[in-house]
Amino acid sequence: MGKTITEKIFDAHFKDEPFPQTIVLSLDMVFCHEITTPIAITDLIKRGKDRIFDPNKIKAVIDHVTPSKDSKSATQAKILRDWAQKHKISDFFDVGYNGVCHALFPEKGFIRPGYTIIMGDSHTCTHGAFGAFAAGVGTTDLEVGILKGICAFRIPKSIKINLMGSLIKGVYAKDVILEIIRILTVNGATDRVIEFCGEAINKMDMEQRMTICNMAVEAGATSGICMPDIQTVDYLWPFIEIEYKNKQRAVEDFKKWHSDKDAVYEKEYNIDVSSIEPLSTVGYKPDQVKKIKDLSDIKIDQVYIGSCTNGRISDLREAAKIVKGTKLAKGVRGIVSPATPKVYKQALEEGILSIFMDAGYCITNPTCGACLGMSNGVLAEGEVCASTTNRNFYGRMGKGGMVHLMSPASAAASGIKGRLTDPREFL
Amino acid sequence: MKEFGGHVYFLNRSDINTDEIIPARYLNEVRKEDLAPHLLEDLKIEGFDPNSEYFKKCRVIVSRENFGCGSSREHAPWAFEVNGITTIIAVNFARIFRQNMFNCGMLAIELPKQEIDSLFKDCSNYETICDVDLSQKTLIFSWDKNKSRSIEFSISAFDEALVKAGGWVEFADQRY
Description:
The complex is a heterodimer of chains A (427) and B (176).
Chain A: H1 5-12, E1 14-19, E2 22-26, E3 29-33, H2 37-46, E4 58-61, H3 71-86, E5 92-93, H4 101-107, E6 116-119, E7 133-136, H5 139-148, E8 150-154, E9 157-164, H6 173-184, E10 192-197, H7 199-203, H8 206-214, E11 223-226, H9 230-244, H10 247-254, E12 267-272, E13 279-281, E14 289-291, E15 302-305, H11 307-310, H12 313-323, E16 333-336, H13 341-349, H14 352-358, E17 361-363, E18 384-387, E19 402-405, H15 408-417
Parallel strand pairs in A: 3-4, 3-6, 4-5, 6-7, 9-10, 9-12, 10-11, 15-16, 15-18, 16-17, 18-19
Antiparallel strand pairs in A: 1-2, 2-8, 13-14
Helix pairs in contact in A: 2-3, 2-5, 6-8, 9-10, 12-14, 12-15
Chain B: E1 6-10, H1 18-21, H2 53-57, E2 58-62, H3 75-81, E3 87-90, H4 95-103, E4 107-110, H5 113-123, E5 128-133, E6 138-143, E7 147-152, H6 157-165, H7 168-175
Parallel strand pairs in B: 1-2, 2-3, 3-4
Antiparallel strand pairs in B: 1-5, 5-6, 6-7
């Protein structure tokens, strides 16, 4: 019987099976940010166990509230900063160098196919785009990961999503994952890994694959995962060139992680992506998804373009194509948060930030802030946001606010009209 | 090991997420105790008031499906813990929340949908007590003066070991 990519990664990282169906894995990377890590740090100190398993396998960033907005967030940042310094964690990213973790860490080349990764953040599944097993965990799992370099998992089953066909104009990776979540529902993949494959995924670059894998958790999945291929190699090339010398060699080597043809899946879905139209969520759950053209009576107060889902350079480029030469509708606030300093600088150099500013957008520094209602764009009671983020829960971007999740192009189009808008009207 | 059982609060909705359990605006707290006044502050369910006297004496939550979905924040189980709620019973849980509960030495117990449905139907209008017998894997619900029901449950051997060890840090540190 063949194995899935996830089963192969589990085999390669097996450390213990303390009880049936529970596997303890050794970890290649433990990622940390300033919201969930400080309590792990203070608990380790309290227990007299202020140690780390490997300073090269721990990466840390201040990203959720940055620059610090008040004394409490400054304290969280300081705990992480002091700890990183004390333990000689050289890959620590502070103000000026920091960005949204799931955009920054891939950009820095920290992920490889076949890796096991945890972070105290549910969108850690993003890194599955590289063919890694990457799972969000809580602070206690993170604490043990920091201390011992291990994490326990129930053996996950795999769901295979075969994406066929080509995207039509105005439809992006975000629309594809919203459609998948609609089909699977918000808990349709709990304790499962979603394996994304098929010609549509093969055609997607790494940024699009990250958008897809990022939201696997919104269907309850432990992780999303894609097969590493030439796209993966192209993205990672500056970091792996010394090791592999030529790209084909890397592509061949990464095939060792590919799911076998006779691997066993709990369920398989075939989705023709050419039938997907631009989508938006409507309601407070990410599986409540409709065609955005049918939602044009919904007025908005704010547009938000950013986050670990859609704050990368390709996202800003797609939105800017629509924004160019237009103005935000009267009364609509626009906020763009490039996800990393590199994205920010690229957007600056390409003139993208000027396009947004001319249209009336505010450009903020890279941060998670508004996505979870912590800073930089929180909604008031009754306000509505067209957002490129990943969660539309009640109160997510501010108590009493309504969030509609959509692609950067749809968010940009909605900003122009002041109501939810199909981006094809501007393409 | 923590204490389990006591008064029950029925939260009649599926997909209660961790943003509702503890909103992100309180995630800049670094002491668990400071989360206590904000538990379920943003949860909108008709008749539910997190400041009510009855809710404050509850030690057990019974809810529907996909409890604890969304953010990985362990602040969610902590917010329950610092309010004395150490047992949550539902049809099923989001993975990270469920593991966070056991990692903290608390109970996230899954019961079949029919069982949860009948608990809501029979008990949710009454003051209800749930006794938890971990060794026998039995829950005993008592309501309306003299009515009671005994329900068997199962949790994985690993999760049970975590509860008995007082959490994953203790377990992992002894074993690895």
